[in-house]
Amino acid sequence: MPVVIVEMWEGRTVEQKKQLVEGITDTFTRIGVPKEALHIIIQDIPKHNWGHAGRLASETD
Amino acid sequence: MPVVIVEMWEGRTVEQKKQLVEGITDTFTRIGVPKEALHIIIQDIPKHNWGHAGRLASETD
Amino acid sequence: MPVVIVEMWEGRTVEQKKQLVEGITDTFTRIGVPKEALHIIIQDIPKHNWGHAGRLASETD
Amino acid sequence: MPVVIVEMWEGRTVEQKKQLVEGITDTFTRIGVPKEALHIIIQDIPKHNWGHAGRLASETD
Amino acid sequence: MPVVIVEMWEGRTVEQKKQLVEGITDTFTRIGVPKEALHIIIQDIPKHNWGHAGRLASETD
Amino acid sequence: MPVVIVEMWEGRTVEQKKQLVEGITDTFTRIGVPKEALHIIIQDIPKHNWGHAGRLASETD
Predict the structure, then answer these.
(1) Is ipTM strictly over 0.90?
(2) Residues from chain C contacting residue B30 (CB–CB below 8 Å)
(3) Which domains are seen in chain B, by residue range?
(4) What is the pTM of this model?
């Protein structure tokens, strides 16, 4: 524990995901969570599966 | 805010997802949520990843 | 199936949740999902548990 | 890893949650997942926050 | 209801998913949930989308 | 977008949640996500609702 689930548009590189995992982990260690205790799950969502303001992100982007 | 996550079997068209996003957004606006505040995330789940009544949906369908 | 999870600030009335469930269900029936097949789960999130733009919603509201 | 999230109506006892955690963990160990690797998160949902077939579970129950 | 969401590394076979669904369902029936009431959703997560202990699982595996 | 969901044991202070939101937001801005685009939802989970290694966290803690 804890578990962090990230939902974001697909298209990020593995390098960017590495940076996310490092930065989020650092943040949790600063409030006392040991880094071994943290799981982070990234879900890549296609823009045609993401709605905002009543429209698909694939239509507005 | 709010965030709506939809888990459903894969196979819906982009047109159907557009209808879902429009209809769900309309519903929230009727209780006073501005449409810009609403995010909707659709996760397409293969039938062999969906269990119901003790069986995979890919077996029973 | 499908399953819809709604994350929103706590404070909505049962009447408003009823309207959400009715409206979201109508939307799914219009793309061919029978209403018996739809589950909707609402999670009431306190504003001090919701971050936006780098701040808790309880600070900015 | 893995992470299992259970959404269910509130009202289950701690004893029943213990049984769920034991049974789900056994199931994962039988496909080769070490029990130390498994996290299970239970979310108790009030019936007035659960919609099914277009109605709140608190109305139909 | 209930709904169970499983997040795990991709790579499991359909046979293993079948075993998971059967075992998890059995567990719920033992606390009185009818098997028809249970939905289980499996999300296959690539290792480069799973962070643990500050690193992507694809780096450490 | 993106949406980050944090599942963690209940008991963290509002001050610690503020730190989490700031740190996670900083991390996303470093890969180019504007802070206004980021929503973070924190779910406080009681230890008797969290299973690890086949036991409830409330038993082992």
Answers:
(1) yes
(2) 19, 23
(3) 3-60 (3.30.429.10)
(4) 0.97
